[in-house]
From TrEMBL:
It comes from the Eukaryota. This is Peroxisomal biosis factor 11 beta. The chain crosses the membrane at residues 220-241. It holds the Pfam family PEX11. One of its GO terms (cellular component) is peroxisomal membrane. It comes from Cavia porcellus (Guinea pig). Coiled coil: none annotated. The keyword Amino-acid biosynthesis does not apply. Keywords: Membrane, Peroxisome, Peroxisome biogenesis, Transmembrane, Transmembrane helix. The keyword Transmembrane helix applies. One of its GO terms (biological process) is peroxisome fission.
C-alpha cells in the first residue's frame, strides 16, 4: 500500500518537473494517467479500512490519559469517515456508481483527512510537552544533585527572573534557547515521535492544497506525499520506529 502511495506521489512530482521543463504533452499525459491508475488502485486496496479505523477508535476509548484518548479516538473516527468517502469515490471512478458527484465527495474526504491529521499533530504536541517536562525535571534533579545552579529556562521565578529590571530580554532569550535545546534533546531521544511529527506535517500539505486552504502546487504536494510515504515504509521495515 505505502509503495503504491510513494509511486503515486513520485509521479505527481515527476509530472510537475516535466511540465516545468517543457516536456512533450504526450509524456505528461502518460505520467498523469499512471498517477490516476495508482490512485484508483490504492482506493481499491483501501476498501474495508473504515472498519479497521472504527476498531482502532474503540480500543483508544479505553486509554487512561484523557488527552490521548480524545486525540486518538477522534483521529480514528475521522479516518473511518475519510475511508468511507474514499470508497464512494472508488465506486464512482470504477463505474459502479457513475452518478456520484466526485468533486463533492473528494472535498468531504479531504476534510475528514485534515481533521484526522490535526488530531495526530495535537497528540504529537501533547506527547512532546510531557516528555519535555520529564526531561526538564530530570535535568533539575541532576543539577541540584551535583550542586550546580538551575538555569532560568528550566526553572522560572526567583531573583534574576524575567521580571528583573534590565534582565528581561536576556533571560527570555536564554529561556527560549534552553527550551529549543530541550525540544531537540527530546526528539533526538525519541525517533518514533520525530518521524511521526515529520510524517503528519508533510501529509498536512495535501488536504490543505486540495481544499484550497493553502495552495502549495503539485510539486510541493508530490514531494510531501513522497517523503511521508518513504517514512511510512521505514516504519514497516523497522517496526520500532512506529509511534506506539
Amino acid at each position: 500500500m505505502e509503495k503504491l502511495r510513494a509511486a503515486q506521489y513520485a509521479c505527481s512530482l515527476l509530472g510537475h518537473a516535466l511540465q516545468r521543463r517543457g516536456a512533450s504533452l504526450e509524456l505528461q499525459k502518460q505520467i498523469q494517467q499512471l498517477e490516476g491508475h495508482l490512485s484508483l488502485g490504492r482506493k481499491l486496496l483501501r476498501l474495508g479500512n473504515s472498519a479497521d479505523a472504527l476498531e482502532s477508535a474503540k480500543r483508544a476509548v479505553h486509554l487512561s490519559d484523557v488527552v490521548l484518548r480524545f486525540c486518538i479516538t477522534v483521529s480514528h473516527l475521522n479516518r473511518a469517515l475519510y475511508f468511507a468517502c474514499d470508497n464512494v469515490l472508488w465506486a464512482g471512478k470504477s463505474g459502479l456508481a457513475p452518478r456520484v458527484d466526485q468533486e463533492k465527495w473528494a472535498q468531504r474526504s479531504f476534510r475528514y483527512y485534515l481533521f484526522s491529521l490535526i488530531m495526530n499533530l495535537s497528540r504529537d504536541a501533547y506527547e512532546i510537552r510531557l516528555l519535555m517536562e520529564q526531561e526538564s525535571s530530570a535535568c533539575i534533579r541532576r543539577l541540584r544533585g551535583s550542586g550546580g545552579g538551575v538555569p532560568g529556562g528550566l526553572e522560572t521565578g526567583g531573583a534574576g527572573g524575567p521580571g528583573t529590571p534590565g534582565r528581561g530580554l536576556p533571560q527570555l532569550a536564554l529561556k527560549l534557547r534552553l527550551q529549543v535545546l530541550l525540544l531537540a534533546r527530546v526528539l533526538q531521544g525519541h525517533p518514533p515521535l520525530l518521524l511521526d511529527v515529520i510524517k503528519n506535517s508533510c501529509d498536512l500539505f495535501i488536504p490543505l492544497d486540495k481544499l484550497g486552504l493553502w495552495h502549495c502546487g503539485p510539486g510541493i504536494v508530490g514531494l510531501c506525499g513522497l517523503v511521508s510515504s518513504v517514512l511510512s515504509i521505514l516504519t514497516l521495515i523497522y517496526p520500532w520506529l512506529r509511534l506506539k
